[in-house]
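Lab notebook, bench 4. The sequencing result for the construct came back, and we need a structural model before the next group meeting so we can plan mutations. Quick request posted to the team channel:

Model the 3D structure of this chain.
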Amino acid sequence: TPGFGSTKDILTQAAQGQLAASLKSADLILFVVDSTQAHITEAEKKLARTIRSLDKPTFLLLNKSDKTPVDTSHFRALGIEDTLSVSANHGEGIEELKILVAKNLPTSSSG
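Done. Here's the predicted structure in token form:
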């Protein structure tokens, strides 16, 4: 993602506009954070506020769970209740993620 902070860079502004449009049109939001971070960034806080205001199914993915023997409770401050620890590198939590996504996407109507 392009990040979610203020910038004067035209390319970054365009990417942020695309991010906002994508969030509005999404059926489901997966907010991925690096679980090895000791603190939540201001950009993550701002993005979380924006996501919560959209009132869409949202899941916080704590990536790099294979490297996280530390406490990740500080991510609760983002206000996203549904969390899942994953390791994209090792495939941990990916099957659970697939099930979570399948259960929360709207069903398509054939016709």
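The longest strand covers residues 29-34.
Will bring this to the meeting.
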